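Chain A, query sequence.
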Amino acid sequence: MSGPDETYDVIVVGGGINGLTAATYLQKSGLKVACFERKLEAGAGCCTEEVMHPGVKVNLCASNLVTLWSPVYGDLELEKFGLEMLTSGEWGMFHPFRDRSAVMFNSWDARKQYEHFASINEHDAEIFKASYNVLAPMMDSILHSSQFLQMTQGPEEVTQEGGMGNMLRMIIPEIPENVHELNAIEVAEAVYQDDKIRTAILTNCIMSGTHPWDGGMSALLPIVFPILQCTQSVTWTSRGGSHAVTHALCSCFAAHGGKLFTGCPVDRIVMEDGAAKGVVLSPYATFPEAEIRASRAVISNLSAHPTFLDLVGEDSLPDWVAEGVHAYKNDETVLFQNYWVLDRPPHWEGYPEEIDRGYGFNFGIESLDDIRRLRECLETNTLPDPPIVAGLSVQGFALADPTQAPAGQYTMMSWANVPWELPEHGGPEKWDVIREDYGDKVDTLLREYNPGLMDSVIDRYCTSPLDYYRKNPSQVCGSTTSGPTGLRWFGTHRPFPNCGAPRSPFENLYLSNSIWPYGTSTLGSGYIAATIVAEDLGVKAGQDWWCHQAMEAGREVMRARGIEIGTPIP
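Chain A, predicted structure.
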C-alpha cells in the first residue's frame, strides 16, 4: 500500500458506512478525498465475521438493513458494485406471545396487513386502513425529509401544537387533541383497542431506536410504524452478510479514485486558528505519525465524544462545546446479542404458519407493563430479568441468503435491551463476568415461546455492550445508534444545541456521526454530511447523478421482483 499524499481536498476520519458514504459522494463530485480507518478493514458497525465456526457468517452489529430506503443506493449505484438486497418473506416482522398468538407486520401488502389486524380487532384494522390510505402516498416524502435533509427543528418545535398530529386527528378522531403533549404509549392506548397490537407496535418503535415513553415525533410512531413497514419494506439482509454494504461503498469510492487507508488510526485533528487543517496519524498507524493536510474540509465519522474530546482535544474546546459533549448521553440504546446456529429451518409450532419465514421478531414483551419495566430498568441501570428482547431478533439471514451458513444450517440472533453501567454487578467491566449467564437467560426466555426452536440450536455466541465498545471505541458505552435518540437530543440538538451539525463549531470541521438522523444503514447521516460539505465547497451544482429521492431506487429493485408497494386498501 502506497503512502498517503501530503494534501487532500477532504479528509474523512473513520471508515464506517456513513463516513464512506460522505467520502464517496465528495470524491465522485470531483474532490480529492482520503479516508483513514483505525481497523484493518472498513465498516466498523456493518461487519460480518466468522467468529463461531467456518462458514457461519455472524452479522455482529448492523443486521436489519434498510439501505433500499436510501438515495445513496441509486446515486452511487451500489447494486453495480455488488450489493444485492434479500429478504426471507413478505411478513417481515412478527411479535410472538406466550399463548401462541402473534401480531404480524407485512412488508409490502397493505391489504393483507389490514386483514390480519381485522382478525384480531376490527376497530384497530380500520385505524390502520384510514391512516394508511392517507399517509402511504406521502411516506417517501416524509422519509426523505426526516432522514436525508439537514434537520431544522429541535425538541421545542416538535412538541408544539400542530403539524402531522393535527392532520391525523382529522382522519383518526381517537387521537387526543393534546397529542403534542403525549408520548407514544399514551397515543397507542388512546388509539388502539387491542393490547397485543399496542404492545407489538410499541415494541417495534423501541426496535427502531426510539423510546415510546418520549414525546415529540415519536408519539406518532404507533400510527406511522405499520405504514412504514408496508410502504418502505424494512426487513432485509444482503448477500454475504451486512458487510456487503461496506464492500459496495469501498468499491465505489475506489472506482472514482478515492483513497482508503486502513490500519491508520488518527491521533488528532490539526487545528489552526479555530479551523481544521488536517490530521496526524497515531504512532501505531501503518504510516506512523504522518501528518496529512486537508485543504478544504475534515469530516469526522467518529461519534461526538472521541471527535471533540480526543481528536480536537478537550483543552481546545470552548466551555459551551465541552459542556454539550459531556451532556451527550451515549447509553440510551445499548444492546446485548445472542447469535445461534440451528440444524434445521426455524419453525414456530402452534403459531401462524406465515411466521416460519418471517425475517425478524421481538419477544419477552407480553404487555405494556413490560415496556414500562424496560423504562424503569434503563433509568435505574438495572439489568432486566427476565430479559426484554426489543432490539430486534432475526431468523431470516440464511433463509434469505443461504451463503450466510453452511448447507443444512441456519442462523438466528437476538438483541436484548440492557443498561451499560451495571452498578449492582460492579460496573460495565463486569459484562465479561456475566455475559454467558445473561445469554443463558435469553435462551431460557426464548424457550418459553418456542422450545423446539431452541432444541435445534447447535452453537451460540454472545456479544455484550462492552464487546461492542472494545471492537469500536466510537461506540461509546456500546451504543448502537451513535448516541442517544431521546427527545432532548432531537434534530438540531444532536449532538448538542447550536453545534450546527453536520457542521461543527470549528471552521472546516464536519460530522457524519452523532448527527441527526442517528447512524444506521439508511446512510442518512453520511448523505447529509456530504450534501452540506458539497454545498459549502461549491461542488454540488451540476452533479446530475446526485438526484435520487428516498425509496426511488429501492422501489425499482422491488418492482423488478414483482413487488409493488403503496397500493391503497379498498
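The first strand starts at residue 7 and ends at 13. The radius of gyration is 23 Å.
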